[in-house]
Amino acid sequence: MNKKSSKKSSSIENYSHLELFNLGKIFFKEKKFIDFRSKGNRSGFEAIKDINLKIEKNTFVSIIGPSGCGKSTLLNLIAGLQAPTSGKIVIDGQAIKGPGPDRGVIFQNYALMPWLTTIQNIEFALNTVFPAKTKADVKERARKYLRMVGLEKASNKFPKELSGGMKQRVAIARALSINPNMLLMDEPFGALDALTRSYLQDELLSIWRKNKVTVVLITHSIEEALLLSDKIVLMSSGPSAIISEEISVDLERPRDREKIEQDPNYLKIKMRLEKHLLRETRAVEEVT
Ligand SMILES: Nc1ncnc2c1ncn2[C@@H]1O[C@H](COP(=O)(O)OP(=O)(O)OP(=O)(O)O)[C@@H](O)[C@H]1O
Ligand SMILES: [Mg+2]
Questions:
Q1: Whose CA is nearest to atom 2 of ligand 1?
Q2: Among all ligands shown, which has an atom nearest to the Cα of 65?
Q3: By alpha-carbon position, which residue is closest to atom 23 of ligand 1?
Q4: Which of 36, 100, 148, 262 has its CA 20 to 30 A from that of 2?
Q5: What is the per-residue pLDDT across 271-286, written as a single tens digit (0 to 9) for each?
């Protein structure tokens, strides 16, 4: 941790790590011609509105909601990749103005650069975030994170030569290599087979424990959210999606996949989540 951030962390008692205040996002249509009837009003699609959320440092938070409700939009706003139409995002007491090395993002589709090898993809991120590091330092660090996700042997392969699970592990290694305070993950395990998914979930948990990062994970899987999270945030169906509920997952850690499924508290939260998703998915079907 650099001097600046350690100074900051000593005075953050009175605010949460990440705070969203009345966050809203409207996607405005691009104007291809001037419509005199619109009287200057721009029409747009309001994806999310009035999102208020507080996330504490080093916690694991999952976001669940029906497809198309605005989860990726919310994550992109937190990542600073899109600007909100209203409201603000505050990290450690400072309003964010764009993307930053404090946040590592893992996209739904891995987003690796196809013309770079596995190790070069990580080196690229490192060179961007730490321009002062020597070539040898960057290589060593990239190797360390590839080793962490069990991919050192694939370091000279190109993304097209990797399986989906391997690509996802590269994306995780890349996001972690820049040593972010926050890991923002958009359905990272959605496209994987059950075995790879379980393996990577365990890996993520151990990375989270060891590296003291705050994780915000978007998932469609109730079981995944229950296994991993301290808190589950439920979003309503869109348009104008809001946060409809926040559920604390007070299940002991480490959590054993088979054992927690017998826990009455687990079953209670699971039922609540299933009901929510069913209700909100029906709401989407009624609109469309
Ligand atoms: N750039 C954009 N321009 C216009 N509308 C957009 C844009 N990006 C997203 N939307 C709309 O905003 C809504 C939310 O999209 P978003 O991708 O955030 O949903 P999601 O919850 O991540 O969906 P999924 O679960 O399928 O990944 C959708 O109706 C989508 O069509
Ligand atoms: Mg999405």
A1: 27
A2: 1
A3: 68
A4: 148
A5: 999 999 999 888 877 7
Give residue 286 CA to ligand 1 midpoint distance, Å: 18
> Looking at ligand 1, which atom is closest to the CA of residue 187?
27
Between the alpha carbon of residue 80 and those of residues 91, 95, 103, the distances in Å are 11, 11, 9
Q: Please report, for the chain, the start and end positions of each structural domain, with discontinuous segments joined by +.
A: 46-102+181-288, 110-179
Does the CB atom of residue 249 touch ligand 1 within 6 A? Answer: no
Length of the chain: 288
Give the span between the Cα atoms of 205 and 228, in whole angstroms.
7
- The alpha carbon of 155 and the centre of ligand 1 are apart by a number of angstroms equal to 34
Phi then psi dihedrals of residue 54, to 5 deg: -125, 130
* Cα–Cα dist 200/107, whole Å: 15
- Own/partner long-range contacts of 151-154 (Cβ < 8 Å, ≥24 apart): 151/118, 154/118
Torsion angle (degrees, nearest 10) of CA 183, 201, 69, 213 = -20
Q: Which CATH superfamily is domain 46-102+181-288 in?
A: P-loop containing nucleotide triphosphate hydrolases (3.40.50.300)
Nearest CA to ligand 1 atom 31: 68
Q: d(Cα 194, Cα 178) in Å, to the nearest integer? A: 28
**Residue 161 DSSP SS3:** helix
What mean pLDDT value characterizes the chain?
Answer: 89
Per residue in 9-34, pLDDT (tens digit) is: 444 456 889 999 999 999 998 765 55
H or E element, residue 86? strand 86-91
